[in-house]
Write a structure and sequence with these properties.
In the C-terminal section; belongs to the PPC synthetase family. With 409 residues, the chain is of the alpha/beta class. The chain has 2 domains: 175 residues, Flavin prenyltransferase-like (Rossmann fold), CATH 3.40.50.1950; 206 residues, Rossmann fold (3-Layer(aba) Sandwich). Strands 12-11-8-13-16-17-18-19 form an 8-stranded mixed β-sheet, with helices on both faces. α1 packs parallel to α2, α1 crosses α8 and α8 packs across α9. The C terminus is likely disordered.
């Protein structure tokens, strides 16, 4: 598997209490293959020390406009060269006013004025400061100048008040930054994804389900949206929030998921069957709660519809990617499933390595063999899976068929 190219950003930290969130943001960015260089205003160093960011990034933190380690003492020029974006988090009202009006009286504001790359700002301030007409004029100017404004959000503030002005949480900023940096290789494409478990009712309170957090499918939805795709996510019951940038369809049972897929599959370019769909469902669920007794309970079950197989056999249908969660014999079972479903690509993992965890390690099987994605956050694994699928999708000629593979013995 080709290595994912590392991205590079400059993270600017200004003087606000939300600076503590920037430390977590720096950590999350690096976990997602983004190299981070930090520059701070003098006020920013009063909230979080440069030593914290140096420990997190492994790079010296730049605070001095006259830093002699840069060629010709021009830190304000060099810092924006070679990075794909500058992200200011937190961005105070004062700092945004400087940038909006072209003022450059310290290192970070001078870097922003002298930059040759995109600039993103994450506002963080008291609600009255945010609502101040001058701040709103400055924000409007930033947007007119092509600067991305991420947030803010409403909520409790350090001053004890509540309202707009709270900086977005690190995970929210991470997703926005990754989406901004990602090449839009799926622009104009429709992607349909199933995720999570299904719940097959036995009675009004009991049912059959599979262990699945839904995180992998949700991560794929966010990653596909960040690549410019029109994403529809059909999800069974999970505790996760609807992914940013995706059309969200909530279902409960396998039958509901099947119907939702049939309703949305038309015109789809890529289909990812990530959901842990129950293989069986009760023939006749009870419309009341069954009472416990000393007698055995016999349940008659019937197979659920095979959603992936249905999509894979649609004439001229989408490029299909299946998922296999196994407890043993990963290669044999995954390749057998790929052959049975007649799909070009399947992603396989061992359940003991992934269920309920934030990280995953997978093996992709296609006509060319096996390709491993080493253990990493599921958000990063999702981008690796998409990169592989896109290469195969783009290489597929009209009317191409899947090369047969041998069934596992």
């Amino acid at each position: 598997m080709d290595k994912v190219l590392k991205r590079r950003i400059l993270l600017g930290v200004t003087g606000g209490i939300a600076a503590y969130k920037a430390a977590e943001l720096a950590r999350l960015l690096q976990k997602n293959n983004v190299e981070v260089q930090v520059a701070m205003t003098e006020a920013g160093t009063k909230f979080v020390t440069p030593a914290t960011f140096q420990a997190l990034t492994g790079k010296p933190v730049i605070t001095n406009q006259w830093d002699a380690s840069f060629a010709n003492n021009m830190a304000h020029i060099e810092l924006s060269r070679g990075v794909e974006a500058i992200v200011i988090a937190p961005a105070t009202a004062d700092f945004m006013a400087k940038v909006a009006n072209g003022l450059a009286d310290d290192l970070l504001s001078t870097v922003c004025i002298a930059r040759n790359c995109p600039l993103l700002v994450a506002p963080a301030m008291n609600r009255e400061m945010w609502d101040n007409p001058a701040t709103q004029r400055n924000v409007a100017t930033l947007r007119t100048d092509g600067i991305a404004v991420l947030g803010p959000a409403a909520g409790d503030q350090a001053c004890g008040e509540t309202g707009m002005g709270r900086m977005l949480e690190p995970e929210e900023l991470l997703q926005s930054i990754l989406a901004f940096l990602a090449p839009k290789s799926l622009a104009g494409k429709k992607v349909l994804i199933t995720a999570g478990p299904t719940f097959e009712a036995i009675d009004t309170v009991r049912g059959i389900t599979n262990l699945s957090s839904g995180r992998m499918g949700y991560a794929l939805a966010e990653a596909a949206a960040s690549l410019g795709a029109d994403v529809t996510l059909v999800s069974g019951p999970t505790s996760l929030s609807a992914p940013h940038g995706a059309h969200f369809v909530y279902v409960t049972s396998a039958a509901e998921m099947f119907n939702a897929v049939k309703s949305h599959v038309a015109g789809t370019d890529l289909f990812f069957g990530v959901a842990a769909v129950a293989d069986y469902t009760p023939v006749q669920p009870s419309n009341r709660k069954l009472k416990k007794s000393a007698e055995p309970l016999d349940l008659k079950l019937k197979p659920t519809e095979d959603i992936l197989a249905y999509v894979a056999q649609i004439p001229g249908g989408p490029f299909c990617v299946g998922f296999a969660a196994e407890s043993e014999n990963l290669a044999g079972y995954a390749q057998a499933k790929r052959a049975k479903k007649k799909i070009p690509m399947i992603v396989a993992n061992l359940v003991q390595h992934t269920i309920g965890k934030e990280e995953n390690e997978v093996t992709i099987y296609d006509d060319a063999g096996a390709h491993t994605l080493s253990r990493a956050p599921k958000s990063q694994i999702a981008h690796g899976i998409l990169a592989h699928a896109i290469r195969l999708f783009e290489a597929r000629s009209p009317g191409a068929t899947v090369t047969p593979i041998k069934q596992a013995s």
